[in-house]
Amino acid sequence: MASFDEMREAGDIETIWQDGEFVDWEDATTHVLTHGLHYGTGVFEGARAYDTENGTAIFRWEDHLDRLYASGEPYEMEIPYSKEELTEATLELLRRQDLKSAYIRPIAFFGYNSLGISPADCPTDVALAAWPWGAYLGEEAIENGIDVMVSSWRKYASSQVPTNAKTTGLYVNSLLAGEEARRNGYQEAIVLNKEGQVAEGPGENLFLVRDDEIFTPGLSQSILDGITRDTVITLAREKGYTVHDQATISRGELHTADELFFTGSAAEVTPIRQVDNVQIADGNRGPITEDLQSAFFDLVERKTDAHDDWFTYV
């Protein structure tokens, strides 16, 4: 991925929507004593817009917005803009930057006023940004897969903090796991939950294929209820596969899987070829993974008319 400065020089990014106004990229600033900076009290989303045969379209935007607002609820964070206002601002942001495809980042956080742990006196600030972003784990990863390790860091439990909210501060858990993997020569990590069962990746949900059936950890395993996860489950069932979407997967089952793959708004559908230096099957993208990849990309590129209600056209 190019740096933001490189994208600015190329003219790919110029504008951010911040608290109701479009501002130049370099002017989208916040105070160093912002509550969200000190305590991680923010919620965010990551969505993609695709350059489809029917024009630029945001994939499952309404679902992403619903989750953004739901993520704020445990923190009593009231987002001071309607979903309709954020939608129109996002569409205009894509138009102003002439982005045919993009990664979109909405974020809401407790802003500047006081620095007690309680954010009661702090405003909720909201921003929207969009930029070009190719394959999150690398272009070759989509076909060839990636090597991962099981991290020594565990996923926090829902009894500790909300696991189904995309909270900014909680992503230090993802950072620790992912950076540990990269230091050890892997491209990504898998995290276990506190019970030692498979949870997910640092920013992805995980799927396992065994005997032509598909398994993915359930919400009780401390995972995020991923929107791409739900998409792949839907597509797999439409294609006739048996999907166990509340599975409990042990660490040992990873090594004996027929296929493994990640899903996520950024990662899309990415095969896993090795776990802890143990090759998965023949080390290549498996046939079910490839089948679901094709179905996913046909869908988001609108090569099929299916699920048109999942798309918001610019």
Walkthrough of the structure:
Belongs to the class-IV pyridoxal-phosphate-dependent aminotransferase family. GO terms for molecular function: branched-chain-amino-acid transaminase activity. By secondary structure, the protein is α+β, with helices and mostly antiparallel strands. 41% of the residues are buried. A hairpin with a 2-residue loop joins strand 11 and strand 12 (213-217). The radius of gyration is 20 Å and the shape is globular. The chain has 2 domains: 4-131, D-amino Acid Aminotransferase, Chain A, domain 1 (2-Layer Sandwich); 141-300, D-amino Acid Aminotransferase, Chain A, domain 2 (Alpha-Beta Barrel), CATH 3.20.10. It is built from 9 helices and 17 strands. The protein has helices spanning 4-9, 35-39, 61-72, 83-96, 141-144, 172-183, 227-238, 251-255, 287-300; strands spanning 15-18, 21-24, 42-44, 47-52, 55-59, 102-110, 124-131, 146-154, 188-192, 198-200, 205-210, 213-217, 243-247, 259-264, 268-275, 278-279, 311-313. 27% of the residues lie in helices and 29% in strands. Strands 8, 9, 10, 11, 12, 13, 14, 15 and 16 form a 9-stranded mixed β-sheet that branches. Strands 1, 2, 3, 4, 5, 6, 7 and 17 form an 8-stranded antiparallel β-sheet that branches.
